[in-house]
Amino acid sequence: MKQKQSNIKLNDNVSGLIQNGCEFKGKLSFEGVLRLGGTFEGEIFTNDILIVEDTGFVSGNITADVVIISGRIVGDVLAKNKIEIYKPAMIKGNLSAPSISMEEGVVFDGSTRMG
To answer: Which of 15, 72, 93, 89 lies closest to 47, judged by CA?
Structure first.
């Protein structure tokens, strides 16, 4: 996977990894950084950072401090700090954050709210 050019400092604080080929359903909450490359259906909550990798798919709502997306999401994303979206991301849902950045080539079907 190509490394994304995020301004977020991702140090050794990775607390979880859901890899490609893994599926998970339910409610997920965590501290630190979670890298999601598999499939998740349900609700995700964290006061920290969620990274949805190229192979990642989320069906459900996300609430986090920072969300970095290059995978697919069907659901709403609420970030307390920022949302960063990189191609080949595909998002169907609403985005809400004080800061939203979207790389050219991203597929987005929904509305945005900044503030």
So the answer is: 15
Q: Which two tokens stand for residue 3?
A: 């490394």
CB atoms under 10 Å from CB of 13, counted, come to 11
DSSP 12: S
Q: How many CB atoms lie within 10 A of CB 52?
A: 28
Please give the Cα distance from 115 to 107 (Å, whole number): 22
Q: What is the pLDDT of residues 36-70, one digit of tens each?
A: 999 999 999 999 999 999 999 999 999 999 999 99
Q: Could you tell me if 62 and 44 are in contact, meaning their C-beta atoms sit under 8 angstroms apart?
A: yes
Q: Do residues 70 and 88 make contact, with C-beta atoms less than 8 angstroms apart?
A: yes
Token readout for 79 is: 């970030």
The pLDDT of residue 17 is: 86
- How is residue 103 written in tokens? 């790389």
Distance from C-alpha of 106 to C-alpha of 68, rounded to nearest angstrom: 13
Closest-CA residue to 36 (of 13, 7, 61, 67): 67
